[in-house]
Amino acid sequence: MFDRQIFQNILMEYKKDFPGQWWTNEKYKWEMVQWFQNHWDIEAKDFPAMLETALRKTGNMLDSSGNFPKSMLLRMTSAAPEMVRSMFRNLYDESLDYVERIETFKEDAETLLRQYGDKNRLNDTKKGYSSFQKENPISVYLWLKYPGKYYVYKYSIIRVVADILKSSYVIKKGAYEENLRQMLFFYDEMREELLKDKDVREMFQKQRTDDCWQDNGLHILTMDFGFYIYVLETYKDETKNQEEEKNSLWQPEGYDPQISREEWAALLKDGTVFTPDSLTVMARMQAAGGEASCTQLAERYGETANFYNEQSSALARRVAEKTGCPLHTTEDGSVSYWPVLYLVRPAGDAEPGAWVWKLRPELAEALEAADLPGALPEVAPHVLKEDTAVFAEPAVPPYTKEDFLAEVYMDGAAYDRLTALVRRKKNVILEGAPGVGKTFAARRLAYALMGARDDSRVEMVQFHQSYSYEDFILGYKPDGEGFRLKEGLFYRFCEKAAQRPGEDFFFLIDEINRGNLSKIFGELLMAVEKEYRGQAVRLPEGDRVFSVPENVYLIGMMNTADRSLALIDYALRRRFGFFEMAPGFASNGFRAYQARLGDARFDALIRTVEALNQAIAQDPSLGKGFCIGHSYFCGAETCTEEWMESIVEYDLLPTLREYWYDDGETVREWEARLREAVHGAE
To answer: Is residue 393 within 8 Å of residue 455, measured between CB atoms?
Structure first.
């Protein structure tokens, strides 16, 4: 029950406001539902792509301060698409209890996070790492699927509406289960009152366009009316001057990290603080005028909104650790790092995203005056498809042979041989000792052959002894109380590549020799061969016809130092080209990196390792496949004795003790030589 007179008084105002600016601002909710209904397909072959498309117009419905449920959901879907598909099957099963479905979705999301999330971040409670799948976003998923039955649950709105209408429905903080059920009864009662008013239905139908959900039962309009009540109460004292309003909303009020322009200028030159990705974010914030939301940056310059959020948070934490600056503490006692870089305010009606960031004045001035040649990257505008009014995929940066050689530390002649082999065979295995950068090189080889750093056309899997044909191609998997035929990772990848025949796709297999290859590939041993690309193979499961497209390339990686796994099935071996990767100490790229570090001790250590590799290569029980790779020594911004000592003591010496387990004298000789290179002669 609620006060009908108060309801009618507010409804009169709503009917006056609705046809004007209110509809302009709020019609996206009806558009959002129509879009979702047009694009949702639980059986989609490429479930992650379908889900991303279906949720594309949700905007700030799935964004709030410090919470990113959509982006986290999409990341989990990319990691475990079938598990998320199953979560949605359960959520949309109307034979199950409404609240129990929401609770199950929450629990399953947290389980996925524990399985696929960053373990370091999961264990750091200060970072608040979460799946963000709470009652509010899950109710959005339900509402999008069943807009004629459910409403979006948001505690702050429901509570205000119940209070203003003097409702008998009690909304209590923390009582999610009861609140969810109360909301359904409460809003259904409000909806019945709205349905009695013919003017309301006519008003809505006059404004509705073809891209908006019909909303015959006025479920969305009921929810919209509740939001109108909330806005009237929450913002009734707002100033009419929008700019003054924005300025007054910048938060956190009174906090100052106490970092001067000069200090920011010094930090900008510190590669341990401002990494290439964080400089990219700063450059794009600066190009946007120093004020933008994550969504605006993503739409204009590419990447995802979560990229800008995560990079900013990580950068702010590094700045705080480097400077020891004061930190902002919230009311609940937790520490917020983002205020080190930005002020923040809620996004306006016409601004995409939930929150707008503004560079702190001292940081903005330092960026303006920064003299960092090549460090602040050029930005490429995001392209809008005029025919569909949907944002195109972000323009991917180009990637050339020169980029590959600068990163991978291979000489140009070897690169030319490798790329020619890939084009000729379509299937290549990179073999070599641990530490020569096979996995790192494989992805960048794909970029170079595509001519772009496009991860949407690259997939990677790691083989192991339990990996099966069902995981890779097709097979029956448990689904509820029975079994369901599910497509494997390579099957789905080939289907995706077949839809874009003009572009190259690369499937990377790490530790390829650790799997039972004949079992994993099955009848596809023939289909992956270049001469048989595009020819149909009938799969035993499900009686399906399948082929490996011409535009798919396979790159495997294999450690030659692994004695127990050195042999590859001959049937597979003849279908792959093998390319041996050697340590890249002599490459131009590594020499340039070595020169940048400019440390005599590091130079001495590298000379000693090169001598060590000669000894390993000449040892009849080892050979060049056991040489020490260059990647142990890569990635440093500065060279310290502690860093080099750690490599020697915890990477190199344990390896040598394994190599020469029965030759203690040789091990002791190299122990002495490596330690002397790091510390100097005792």
So the answer is: no
Q: Which of 238-252, 335-349, 365-379, 578-592 has the highest mean pLDDT?
A: 578-592
DSSP 403-430: HHHHHH---HHHHHHHHHHHHHHSEEEE
Residue in the structure block whose two tokens are 């496949």: 625
Domain boundary among 337, 361, 391: 391
Q: What's the rounded Cα separation, in Å, for the pair 546 and 560?
A: 33
13 shares a domain with 98: yes
CA distance 160 to 174: 15
pTM of the predicted protein model: 0.44
Q: Which domain holds residue 634?
A: 588-679
* CB 365, CB 261: distance < 8 Å: yes
* Single-letter code of the amino acid located at 531: E
- Supply 388's token pair: 């569909």
Q: Mapping DSSP to helix (H, G, I), strand (E, B) and coil, where does residue 324 land?
A: coil
- For the purposes of burial, counting CB atoms within 10 Å of the CB of 240, is it exposed (0-12), middle (13-18) or buried (19 or more)? exposed
Contact (Cβ atoms closer than 8 angstroms) between residue 350 and residue 242: no
Please answer whether residues 455 and 467 qualify as being in contact, where contact means their C-beta atoms are separated by less than 8 angstroms.
Answer: no
**Two tokens at 71?**
């982006």
Q: Give the CB-side neighbour count of residue 109, counting CA atoms within 13 A.
A: 24
- Of 580, 613, 638, the residue that ends a domain is 580
Distance of alpha carbon 477 from alpha carbon 487, whole angstroms: 10
Token pair for 315? 């950068």
Q: Using one digit for the tens of pLDDT, what is the confidence trace for 360-372?
A: 999 988 888 875 4
92 in a structural domain: yes
DSSP 2-18: --HHHHHHHHHHHHHHI
Give the chain's domain count: 4
For range 299-328, the mean pLDDT: 84
* CATH code, domain with 461: 3.40.50.300
Tens-place pLDDT, residues 355-401: 788 899 999 888 888 754 444 444 443 333 333 333 334 457 899 99
- Separation CA 675–CA 646 (nearest Å): 11
CB 666 within 8 A of CB 660: yes
pLDDT digit string (tens) for 439-492? 889 999 999 999 998 888 999 898 888 888 888 888 877 766 677 777 888 988
Cis peptide before 252 (omega within 30 of 0): yes
